[in-house]
Amino acid sequence: MRGQMNWPNPPLRTEVDHLVSFDASVIKKLLKKHILAEWQSKWNASAKGREVFSLLPEVRETRTLGNFFLNQLYTGHGTLAVYQARFFGRNSSCQCGHPQEDRLHIVYDCPLWNDTRKKHFPKDHKNVALGLLANKISKSGLEHIMRQKLQTALSPSKGEN
To answer: What is the pLDDT along the chain (161 residues), one digit of tens a residue?
Structure first.
């Protein structure tokens, strides 16, 4: 059988357990701790994702912010046209005519989302960029924008926002 060792006197389980004094759960916990520390080190040193780093400087196994829709804004992925252009060769322009539909354009400038911004964002929203994520009402506005963008992207005919 492949991988089987032919030891003249294989060790007994009790001997192995004596040599390896850690329980499997302890080893698993130590490995997890090491992996998270290595991930954190790489995240700290990376030149990529600095905007996300400003929001989430510590790596964690659990979701710390957002949901499916908000995470598209945090990362710049998903239905945003610049992401679609980069990975799928699609047009990077916004439906409003702006040449680049990125998260900053959507959140701050796109006229298609003026009503949502008026309803959900504070008047000085351009000065409180990260504050939008801390404010429940603003977060619901950001989520609304991304939900609508996904619905529009999935609908056969492009509808209104």
So the answer is: 455 667 777 777 766 666 666 778 888 999 999 999 999 999 999 998 887 787 778 888 876 667 888 888 888 888 999 999 999 999 999 999 999 999 889 988 999 999 999 999 888 776 666 667 767 888 889 899 999 998 988 887 654 45
pTM over 0.85: no
54 token code pair: 């400003």
Where are the alpha helices (H) located in the chain, listed in sequence order?
A: 13-19, 24-45, 50-55, 68-75, 81-88, 103-104, 114-120, 131-134, 136-154
Whats the size of the chain, residue-wise? 161
